[in-house]
Amino acid sequence: MDQGLSLHSDPISKDLYSVCVHCGFCLEVCPTYQQLGNENESPRGRVYLMKAAAEGTLPFDESVIDPVFNCLDCRACETVCPSGVQVGTLIEEARGQALSHIKQSGLEKFLHDLFLRKIFPSPGRLQRIRKLLRFYQVSHVQQVVRRSGALRLLPTHLREMEAVLPSVSRASARSVLPKESEQTKGVTKGRIALFTGCVMDVFFSEIHMATVRVALRNHLHVSVPKDQICCGALQIHAGDREQARMMAKHNIDVFLQSGADYIVLNAAGCGAAMKEYKELFHDDPVYRERAELFSSKVRDIAEILLEVGYEKPKSRLERTVTYHDACHLAHAQNIRSAPRELLRAIDGLTLIEMNDADRCCGSAGIYNITHPEMAAQLRERKLADLPHNVEVVAMGNPGCMLQIKAGLYAQGLTMDVVHTVELLDEAYRLEREVQ
Amino acid sequence: MNHMQLVSKLTAVLGSNQRVLHKENELYAYECDGYVAQRGRPRAVVFPETTEEVAAIVQLLHREKVPFLPRGAGTGLSGGATALNNEVVISLVRMNQLLHVDYDNMRAVVQPGFINLQLTKQIAKENAYYAPDPSSQSACTIGGNLAENAGGSHCLKYGVTTNHIVAAKVVLPTGEIAELGATYGDALGYDLLGLLIGSEGTLGIATEITVRILRKPQAVKTIMAWFDRVDEASDTVSQVIGAGIIPAAMEMMDQLAMQAVDKSNYHVGYPADIEAALLIEVDGLVEAVAAETDQIVDICKQHQVRAVRVAETDAQRALWWSSRKMAFGAMGRISPNYLVQDGVIPRTKLTEVLARIREISVSSGLRIANVFHAGDGNLHPLICYDASIPFETEKAMMVGSDILKVCVDVGGSITGEHGVGIEKINDMHYLFTEAELKAQIAVRAVFNPEDLCNSGKLIPKPGRCAEVKRASTMISQHLETYIKTSHGSNSHSM
Ligand SMILES: Cc1cc2nc3c(=O)[nH]c(=O)nc-3n(C[C@H](O)[C@H](O)[C@H](O)COP(=O)(O)OP(=O)(O)OC[C@H]3O[C@@H](n4cnc5c(N)ncnc54)[C@H](O)[C@@H]3O)c2cc1C
Ligand code: SF4
Ligand code: SF4
To answer: Does the keyword Repeat apply (chain A) (predicted)?
Structure first.
């Protein structure tokens, strides 16, 4: 393959950046450009800079690296780009390049290694942290800490997040769910393997339970492979491609072995990353094919329900709801209508569209921690776009849920923030009461 | 004044270093606009937010004799916003407010960085819209539209930008603030606003623009027709107009353009073997629209149309339009680089000129796609090339020039809506005499006495004509030998 200047073994691909014809259609959909008006912080600008750096006309210094790291990787630009420039992939490759030859400061490196290389990839360590956090929350320590005012030492955005952290589930879905669903009678729509993720399973295992119930209700056989680990999306976004590859290989082996027809998840970021595993292995002779097979089986929960056919709940759920498009569902996976269709299938539920539903809320992986200022601006815009007469904001990604919850908390607003599948699960549960 | 002194003065005017880009490597992204064949790095980029700030910056630059130029979204296709003289770029994108809408009198006032499509979106709830709709409307600014006198698909019936701007506040190249035009009625005296519109940022910087807005028509119908042969499509265009119908839009795409855009997110599914697709829209009163639609479908059928359909849903209509509007950008799907030309011809010459373009394509070995406003006779040949092949950029530019000459020879012009910029500056000699060019330079000198504001664009400098001609003959000779030797081995031939 024709490649750009080889700074390390995984250079930015020439055949990706050379596709940009500099037309500018992407400018107005880019959240960072909308906020700043600076072309360096636009898709067209970023591609131009990455290209210049790859060709050696621009040093790979902060003039390239800052815009590359300020990118949300939200992929809104890819949705509009008529030329098909894969800005997200380019950004991830450039971050890989940057990490491989910038020296991180001591603390940065420590945190990077701790989270992206030690904690997330290790289910055992995650479990221990889960237990610690749960202890923190249920054992009054949280109240003591909160009362002591120690949290004031945290920056505001982290304090707001601490306040809205969901209670850590008693048990992770991966460990409590049986390896295989017992239900085999009436399984007509295929076998799915549930991907449980890392952080998701610490804070949002209820969403996994809801996902499983909804899948069973719709005649899918469910398995939960026990050896699975985190998908590596955060590592890919951060540019740690080597670590991501190790994790991806592990998951590919585990899930292909499970024999499931589909690999199903309910987190948009993980879904996008797993559908793109093949990109990580574009020049790996062994794993490329396996990755392609794996990716072809990956489905978001909303997507699979539409694909195999779902049953309309027989109950009523009186709720006014608005729907936020998570970037990695709408832009990266082009899933927009499926979740809305599921919501509309619930009798009694009124769906009110918000303005620019598919503009990034600022969460973007760990962007709200690494770039609090831009993340806060985008959060404000998102909140301003919420129709004020709705009770619930639904979406398909846990990262966005945390971000929007923190925003609502900061403004003293009381809207519910839920995963789409939770509303569906609730409607199915009400069925039994109806009967 | 050295660079850092200038930077600190600019920063002092704007009150914040966040609003001045000046380090060499952060200026890179501002090297060119939508026309990438020629580039130039600006000296700095500044982001004013008010008319007064623009005026203060211009006064400073005028005083210090530092060249400068205004820039909107940088979607221009003729290099108007490219800094050839190390200019300070005055970016207007942060002046992006809709200042006022008067629905009773159908006027809106916008800042220059306001995005064209946003205006229509924001006034849609009152059943109003802004008519000029360049294909780039989702990204380009109304200030940039004013400077280029932008056209668009619906300009066939509704007229180009100049028919929709009634007044503007302008910072002149000397730094004075002037108000041109009149919100209602005709302004007295010389039509200075008319002069400013289409002057490509060489006579001043618009900082507040008052536009006419329109009520949405009662009904709209969109027709897509596929033709086996280009001439049948061209004849259809002529006959529709001949029948006394003025469609809101009448657009054509050829085979290569359809192929490119069908590979994108805006996939329509054009048959692989048709030569032309027409997209025709009629609007107006319900009954009239229904009757005209039937009449147009009939005319298509009289011309051996392969298939003709009327859009059934808004989604379908929107897809057809996106497919047309995204066609330039989709060239990246089939070619690493492209150069879009913008020639105008009398509508009756369409078939002949398209055939000439095909010949030029064959003899140069460069593929040329065609997407255009057929109703206006405004052609957009998209010349595909690969800048990484030596001399191919120059070859593409030469092909562009040759096509424009064909347009002029049949009685047309070298630009319909994209402006002259730097791209077509030498082709001005083909259209105008020396005396005519001198007259235009004299006009410019009245507004832009030091020639600091977007110098080197639009009108070629006098005296250099002989030089330019000599240089261009040399280049042509050189290229001809090159083309001869490389021809046949070129993988890009049709
Ligand atoms: C894919 C694509 C499709 C296009 N389709 C069309 C089309 O259908 N019709 C059409 O007419 N054009 C079209 N264009 C060309 C372009 O979009 C228009 O010329 C548009 O008006 C440029 O606006 P801008 O904001 O990007 O201006 P820029 O490119 O930033 O600037 C254009 C010129 O205007 C000057 N300028 C900018 N702002 C001001 C101001 N406030 N005051 C004075 N001068 C100013 C600049 O100095 C420059 O000379 C297309 C471009 C692309 C990339
Ligand atoms: S829309 Fe695509 S081709 Fe156009 S400038 Fe943006 S990235 Fe490049
Ligand atoms: S991914 Fe999002 S933030 Fe990054 S360039 Fe594209 S639109 Fe902008």
So the answer is: yes
What is the token pair recorded at B472?
Answer: 């261009």
If you search the block for the tokens 């490759």, which residue do you land on? A93
Residues recorded for chain B: 494
The full 3-state SS of A115-129, as one line of letters, equals HHHHHCCCHHHHHHH
Q: What is the mean pLDDT of residues B466-491?
A: 54
* 3-state class (DSSP) for residue B457: coil
Q: How far is the CA of B112 from the centre of ligand 1 (A)?
A: 12
- Residues in chain A closer than 8 A to B329 (CB atoms): 21, 23, 25, 81-83
Q: Can you tell me whether residue B382 is helix, strand or coil?
A: strand
For residue A174, what pLDDT is reported?
Answer: 73
Average pLDDT (B453-467) is 79
For chain A, the distance separating the N- and C-terminal CA atoms, rounded to the nearest angstrom, is: 62
Q: Quote the mean pLDDT of chain B.
A: 93
Higher pLDDT, A114 or A255: A255
SS (H, E, C) chain A: CCECCCCCCCCCEHHHHCCCCCCCCCHHHCHHHHHHCCHHHCHHHHHHHHHHHHHCCCCCCHHHHHHHHHCCCCCHHHHHCCCCCCHHHHHHHHHHHHHHHCCCCHHHHHHHHHHHHHHCCCHHHHHHHHHHHHHHHHCCHHHHHHHHCHHHHCCHHHHHHHHHCCCCCCCCHHHHCCCECCCCCCCCCCEEEECCCCHHHHHCHHHHHHHHHHHHHCCCEEECCCCCCCCCHHHHHHCCHHHHHHHHHHHHHHHHHHCCCEEEECCHHHHHHHHCHHHHCCCCCCHHHHHHHHHHHEEEHHHHHHHHCCCCCCCEEEEEEEECCCHHHHCCCCCCHHHHHHHHCCEEEEECCCCCCCCCCCCCCCHHHHCHHHHHHHHHHHHHHCCCCCCEEEECCHHHHHHHHHHHHHCCCCCEEEEHHHHHHHHHHHHHHHC
Average of per-residue pLDDT across A252-258: 93
Task: Select the residue of B74, B265, B338 nearest A24 (Cβ to Cβ).
Answer: B74
Comparing CA positions, the residue from B406, B383, B414 lying closest to residue B396 is: B383
Minimal-distance CA residue to ligand 3 atom 8? A30
Identity of the amino acid at B229:
R
Does the CB of B247 have a partner CB in chain A at under 8 Å? no
Q: What six digits make up the tokens of B219? A: 């009904």
pLDDT at B468 over 60: no
Residue A386 has, within 13 A of its CA and on its CB side, a CA count of 28
Q: Is the pTM of this model over 0.80?
A: yes
User: CA of A54: how far to CAs of A7, A77, A304, in Å?
Assistant: 8, 21, 39
Taking the C-alpha atoms of residue B79 and residue B69, their distance in angstroms, rounded to an integer, is 12
Which of A19, A63, A82 is opposite residue B266, by nearest beta carbon?
A82
Give the Cα-Cα-Cα angle B38, B135, B247 (nearest 5 degrees): 135
Which residue reads 């210049």 in tokens?
Answer: A52
Backbone angles phi, psi at A327, to 5 degrees: -55, -40
Measured at the alpha carbon of residue A78, what is the angle toward residues A343 and B75, in degrees to the nearest 5? 125
Partners of residue B45 on adjacent β-strands: B21, B89
| Model pLDDT, residue B489 | 41
CA-to-CA distance for B67 and B455, rounded, in angstroms? 8
Determine which of B38, B93, B263 to mutate to test the interface with A (most A C-beta atoms within 10 Å).
B93
- Average per-residue pLDDT in chain A? 86
- Residue owning tokens 């955060």: A234
Closest ligand 1 atom, residue B416 Cα: 11
How many C-beta atoms surround the C-beta of residue B343 within 10 A?
27
ipTM score over 0.90, yes or no:
yes
| Most confident listed range (A4-8, A178-182, A398-402, B55-59) | B55-59
Chain A residues whose beta carbon lies within 8 Å of the beta carbon of residue B328? 21, 23, 82
Distances (CA, A) of B292 to B298, B386, B468: 10, 44, 51
